[in-house]
Design brief:
Helix 2 packs across helix 4. The chain has a two-stranded antiparallel ribbon. The N and C termini lie far apart (about 65 Å). About 55% of the residues lie in helices and about 5% in strands. Strand 1 and strand 2 form a beta hairpin. It has 2 domains: about 110 residues, DNA polymerase, domain 1; about 35 residues, no CATH class. The longest helix is centred in the middle third of the chain and has 20 residues. It is mainly alpha-helical.
């Protein structure tokens, strides 16, 4: 059996299109659980690592500074992204037959805080009507948006 670090290294080598955020999250998992066999990582290990992550908080990075804690807490969505990234490692390991298909990923038993619903994420009907009104006025000059003339 292989360690989590070797599994993550193999996954990164076979997936050149991973973004820097995913790579950073994978580095975190290697630093916390990399020495464990991939089949031995449990939900308790993941919970303990998430406690370390939450206590660390947001990081401050820059060109001329070393990575350090900013003192601000992580959002629940960020913690969920870390868990999801680890879950992706286990899905990849199963697809490569490094784990049995019946193996249950340790991320299955992990409870993450839900993110609050952002009520400003979508426009209200009134905001849509105001936007369409402004677009109609702006389109009088160019006549590029004929659907604005059809909309009631």
């Amino acid at each position: 059996m292989t360690t989590l670090k070797k599994t993550i290294d193999a996954m990164v080598a076979s997936s050149p299109d991973l973004d820097s955020g995913s790579l950073h999250r994978l580095e975190f998992w290697v630093s916390q659980l990399g020495s464990l066999l991939i089949s031995d990582v449990s939900a308790d290990h993941v919970d303990d690592a998430l406690d370390v992550l939450v206590n660390r908080g947001k990081l401050r990075t820059g060109r001329r500074i070393t990575t350090e804690s900013s003192g601000k807490p992580l959002s629940p969505a960020t913690v969920t992204r870390y868990v999801s990234t680890l879950g992706g490692v286990y899905r990849w390991a199963k697809s490569q037959r490094l784990l049995r298909k019946s193996h249950i990923a340790p991320t299955r038993g992990v409870q993450t805080a839900s993110s609050p619903i952002n009520k400003n994420k979508f426009m209200t009907a009134d905001e849509v009507d105001r936007l369409v009104s402004v677009a109609r006025v702006a389109d009088r000059q160019w006549r590029k948006l004929p659907w604005l003339r059809c909309r009631v």
